[in-house]
Hints:
The structure holds two protein chains of two kinds. Chain A is an alpha/beta fold. Chain A has a single domain (15-234), classed as Rossmann fold (3-Layer(aba) Sandwich), CATH 3.40.50.300. In chain A, 32% of the residues lie in helices and 26% in strands. The two termini of chain A are 32 Å apart. The model of chain A has no long low-confidence stretch (mean pLDDT 89). By secondary structure, chain B is α+β, with helices and mostly antiparallel strands. Chain B has two domains: 3-52 and 257-389, no CATH class; 61-249, no CATH class. Chain B is 57% helix and 18% strand. Chain B has 14 helices and ten strands. The interface between A and B is medium-sized, with 30 and 25 residues. The structure holds adenosine-5'-triphosphate and magnesium ion (MG). Magnesium ion binds at residues 57-58, 103, 179 of chain A.
Amino acid sequence: MNELYPHPRINGPIIQVTRLSKHYSNGHGVIPVLRGVNLEIHPGEMVAVMGPSGSGKSTLLFILGLLLPASSGNYQFLGQDVLNLSRTDQADFRRRRVGFVFQNCDLFENSTVYENLEFPLVYAQVERHERPARIVAALERVNLAHRLRHPANRLSGGERQRVAVARALVNQPQVILADEPTGQLDRQNGHMIMENFKQIMAQGDTSLVIVTHDTQVAECCHRTFSLEDGVLYES
Amino acid sequence: MRFSDLIRVSIRQLVRHRRRYWGVMLAIALGTAGFITIITMGRDLKQNFNRDLELLGRATLVKVYFERLPAYFHQNFTSATVQALRKMQGVRDASLAVCTYMAQSSNNGVAHNFSLFGVDNAFWDVCGFTTQDGRLTSLADNDLRQRVVVLGPELAQTLFGRKDVVGKKLEIQQDIYTVVGVLKNVGLGDLSHFAFMPFTTAQDRILRISPANRIYLRTLTWDDVDKVAPLIPQVIQSVQYAPGLKVEVAWDQVKRVKAVAFWVQLFIYSSIVATLILGGVGIWTVMMAAVRTRTREIGLKKAMGAEDQAIMAQFLAEAVCLSFTASLAGSFVGLLTVEVTSHLISSHPPQGLFLFCVILGLVVAVGLGVAAGLYPSLQASRMEVVSAIRYE
Ligand SMILES: Nc1ncnc2c1ncn2[C@@H]1O[C@H](COP(=O)(O)OP(=O)(O)OP(=O)(O)O)[C@@H](O)[C@H]1O
Ligand SMILES: [Mg+2]
């Protein structure tokens, strides 16, 4: 399914994280957020991460997406250690492997929906004539093809969230890291997003890590984890 | 990131945030337009000043004559000599004159002595004389050897007791002349007491008139004086035998005019440079502000895999597009100004120079964009992803 970067078929886990810890330091001292997280995700798997506010769920996703360096621990992606990549290789990793949906569903405000979805393709150097088809296909997955030329700052909250999901899909990544992508959606639309994720994961080469507070969403996933006191428990 | 995408995205940004960029673009456009106009029109404007500003007076006037020694009393210049001088580079025109200091007239039975010039019609333009009343002598007056005189205002006063004497008759050496004009008393000096008549008439009718032994020559601009003056003897001697030749230049005035021109030019150039610096500082501030307000956008782009260089290139391209567009607009304004001014002073500015200025202006603008945009772009490219995304 992925014509962009054919994913190597592998049997082992796509993501393998061991004893991962992360602490922030501010002026007053260090704030430990993650302490020894272990996580293994296989191709085609859907994983939900739950946990109270401020427990470090977003932090975990950032580290998985190489948006934030870990303090210590080990992170292997397709068997390759990715924590010590150079800045350029990190960018390359984010471009090819990861689709990110942010918690506050940041969009490019002064741009249209189309332009928002175009940026990942621009950075991936996709030929210009190939872009419209991909963008429309991604938007169709979230039922927003009719908003193609709509300015991003005139979308409703739910529409923004769906555009953010479509933007994470457009590059056909190996891992989708979604931080509460259904938070603002009604049940029907939330269901639609999850069905879409299911369809994509069913093809077997993409995995999903989704942070959510919604148990119904978590039930759609293969496994559910909860993050408490910096440690990840499978429930 | 592809180049075509880079440019497309940058221009889109500029267009969408055009309000933010207006002021800076205006400054750069004006600077460029001023630069192009001043450089292209500089020489023509100088010539025009030279023609119009009486203040220049004798600075660009060169007088050529023979030393007043008995050996040279009968030397004269030929019209071929005047032609040769006219063709020199940097010379606007040259005029040949004869003169006597002992012309006599009797008016109402009272006799007067005064000086008299016989001049060709180029004389007036060369010396910058105009009339306050009536007209100057013309080519036709010269061809037809008309008996007409133009009087200096003081002479008119002495002869007639008043200055509005156009149409009056004046007797000079038993011939009756018509006064056709009275000169304006600006920059005349002693010549205010002189009378002027057509060159040919003077040669024909005035007793003891001198040989044609003086040439007045006007250069195009004050910068031409020191180039033209030293070459004059050479040019004359290639046409005729001319011992005892003297070339007189009002070096003092040339120096003073040059000093004034220098300060004026310095002022103009420094205001252009100031405008451009202002533009540069403007780009800097605008880009710094853009980097700050677009922090989240930068974080997002990095999160979707934009490399540091891509972010940097993006902001740099915006700065360059900004200054380049502004400079391009300035070039059009410059073209317009050059067209209008050259129409007004009816001159033909050199096309090559204009093109050179436009290209130089664009190159400088790109340089300005890069220089002023570099630091903000660098700042943008160095941002950490998460702190950028969590930035409020
Ligand atoms: N840059 C930082 N410096 C200091 N502390 C930080 C920083 N970023 C996050 N934190 C702290 O780390 C903790 C974890 O933050 P994180 O955003 O991962 O929580 P979360 O589980 O996503 O919460 P929520 O469900 O509310 O989104 C919080 O207590 C937060 O205050
Ligand atoms: Mg969070």
